[in-house]
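User: Please predict the structure of the protein below. I'd like the answer in structure-token form so I can feed it into my own downstream comparison script.

Assistant: Understood. Taking the following sequence of 212 residues as input:
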Amino acid sequence: MPLSEKIAALRKRAGLSQEQLSEALGVSRQAVSKWESGGAMPELDKIVQLSRVLGVSTDALLLDELDCFSSIPPELTGSARPFPVSQGSGTGRAAAFGLMLAGLLCAVLGWREYQALLPVCIGLVLQIAGCVVYEALAAPIPAARCRFYALAVWLLAPVPCAFAVDAVFFFIGHMTSYSSLLALPAVLLLWLCTGCAVTLLLRRAARRFGPE
């Protein structure tokens, strides 16, 4: 059985759509479609990821003489897949981003309107709920998790950065009359630095788990 047929058969046996498999591997759905039609071959690192997600060895995928249903049945039970892909991975990711964005807007607009900590705390709770929803519904492989948080950090970082800058200026505010004018630029600078640093680290981690 050629590799293209094995990928299609194992994907269907695992109950995954092409889109769900592509999300787990960090590739486009069109790439998975080409692999299954024989129009393209997955790169070596993607074959390793395929073996993990589908629960088979790389030999079982690459050797044509091994029939994926008769020659290696113990590996295809589905119970030993190290990185299961949730059927609701796309929905979980969208819901998580929605909660994080709602939390950020609640915190920012609430503070602007009322100058109170309650809306800020509610916003933080919503953002934490977004992380919980993602972990519960998406259940991605490590590389996909790293890519998700590399984007999510831009929604998660503003409120903690604002708290950090506010704490600093609370202690040094009596030293200059320009503290209030410098606060917003300081928050933006800290947010950009934090976002860039965390994104870089997580992208490197994602490539280590499975290059894009």
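That's the full token string. The two ends are 27 Å apart (CA to CA).
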